[in-house]
Amino acid sequence: MPEMPEVETLARTLRKTVVGKRVAEVRLSGLPLRKPISETFASMLQGRTIHKISRRGKYLLAEMNPKAYWLIHLGMSGRVLCHLQGNAATEHTHAIIRFSDSTELEYRDPRRFGLLAAYEVRRPGLIPEIRSLGMDPLCAGFNSKWLRPLLRKSKQDIKSFLLDQRKIAGLGNIYACESLFLAQIHPARRCFTLSPEETAHLIRAVRKVLAAAIRHNGTSFSDFMDSNGKPGNNQDYLKVFQREGDECCRCRMPIQRLRQGNRSSFYCAHCQD
């Protein structure tokens, strides 16, 4: 599933290609995504101009003029592609937004777990999906003063805590595993057992892992591409994720896999305690 670095990569490419463009036509497949696309979606976008592209957690957000917000979530397999008008739609194309300059933005999603929605609200915080999100790990407020009290009162394992979008918005399985490895914290550790030093180390690790992933244009195993159809290369830099049995880059012991809920955690039993 595309996580925050992939969505940030997509936002950065879209800022160069669609900001300032006016929507001339919206065509939909008629198939539902993780929930049906609203009947008003097309009419709300048509005639509006994209003023700004931003990211909130794993959501891509386009601010429109006149005031409206277009929300995109890639789900498991969603792609947003920009191209000239006339490219043939695939069976997995669920939306084509044609701009007045005859370029198009295409949303593809084979698994249909993504989201397309539009809202006429005063600010992004009033959008239901955005309102429920927790702290963005790249903002200044993601610090020990904020995180330490939450960890002290939580009996969750730290991996599950990191994945909870109501607490921290944007982290997914890949970057939670990588951050815990860098911080040398076992994914099954209970939150309240982390010391102040470990908490500070974890914050630095999360920021470092995410910054590196954005610098490498995201992680692409099979689905993720930016709006130009270019995959990321952060998968070449991962230390533990999907590397079960490989040697740890620190101690040369084999990377192990632990099942937590319905996800696999990858870690080094020797380095992470």
Brief write-up:
By secondary structure, the chain is α+β, with helices and mostly antiparallel strands.
Characterization of the model:
It is a single chain. 25% of the residues lie in helices and 22% in strands. It has 273 residues and is of the alpha+beta class. It has two domains: 128 residues, MutM-like, N-terminal (N-terminal domain of MutM-like DNA repair proteins), CATH 3.20.190; 124 residues, Helicase, Ruva Protein, domain 3. The strands form three sheets. It has a four-stranded antiparallel beta sheet. It has a four-stranded antiparallel beta sheet with strand order 2-3-4-8. α1 runs parallel beside α7 and α6 packs across α7. The longest helix is centred in the last third of the chain and has 20 residues. It is globular and about 55 Å long.
Short key terms for the protein model shown above:
273 residues; alpha+beta; N-terminal domain of MutM-like DNA repair proteins; Helicase, Ruva Protein, domain 3; 2 domains; four-stranded antiparallel β-sheet; 7 helices; 10 strands; 22% strand; globular
- What fraction of the residues are assigned to beta strands by DSSP? 15-25%
Determine and state the CATH class of the largest domain: Alpha Beta
Give me the CATH architecture of the largest domain, please.
Answer: Alpha-Beta Barrel
The whole-number mean of residue pLDDT values reads: 95
Rg is 20 Å
What is the strand tally? 10
Number of domains: 2
Number of helices in the DSSP assignment: 7
* Terminal residue distance: 27 Å
Series of secondary-structure elements, N-terminal to C-terminal: HEHEEEEEEEHHHHHEE
Strand order of the largest sheet: 1-6-7-5
By CATH, the topology of the largest domain is: N-terminal domain of MutM-like DNA repair proteins
Sequence stretches where pLDDT stays below 50 over 5 or more residues: none
Q: Largest beta sheet, briefly?
A: 4 strands, antiparallel
CATH superfamily of the largest domain: MutM-like, N-terminal
